[in-house]
Specification:
This protein is an alpha+beta fold. The chain has helices at about 5-15, 20-40, 125-140, 155-160; strands at about 50-55, 60, 70-80, 85, 90-95, 100, 115-120. The strands form 2 sheets. It has a 4-stranded antiparallel β-sheet, with no helix packed on it. Strands 2-6-5 form a 3-stranded antiparallel β-sheet, with no helix packed on it. Helix 1 packs across helix 3 and helix 2 (about 20-40) packs across helix 3 (about 125-140). The protein is elongated, with a radius of gyration of 20 Å.
Length: about 170
Amino acid sequence: MAEPVTLAEAKKHLDVLRDDQDDMIESMITAAREWVENYTGLSFNGDAVTQTFRCFRAGITLLVWPADDDAEVTVAYLNQAGEPVEVTGARLWRAAKPARLLPPLNGAWPTDADGTIAVTVQGVPFSLKAAMLLMVGDLYNQREETAVGVSISASGAVDNLCHPYRMPVIG
């Protein structure tokens, strides 16, 4: 499984040049992703997520949220002749929770879809990646359970970066 934060990004953030701690840092990346997922209620692992639909409709609701500005969106289907077709220009409405897929600007969804429509989205917002990097830094700098004579205080930056992405709790 590919993590949203790469080992190279984490090592650069930590200013680590050697390779003998790679396994430990990779574990910290996973722990940071899991914490962010638990805090926000979202699930992401850096891999593309494909969702299928039976037909095109206005504002297709996607399971993927959040998606960053560079998120790649691919919409593909089989037309009535059974030929694969890719829709170009589909737009991702990132502000919606969860994200919604909109037809191309000044356009409409195709009407010749016959069967399954596949929508693939890939991308994680930078603010959540930054939160993960901050957590990796904290884990790296505080590798022991206790530190004698050291005062540690949280800045709240991780919570502040993640809070806008928290999914509402229903029930």
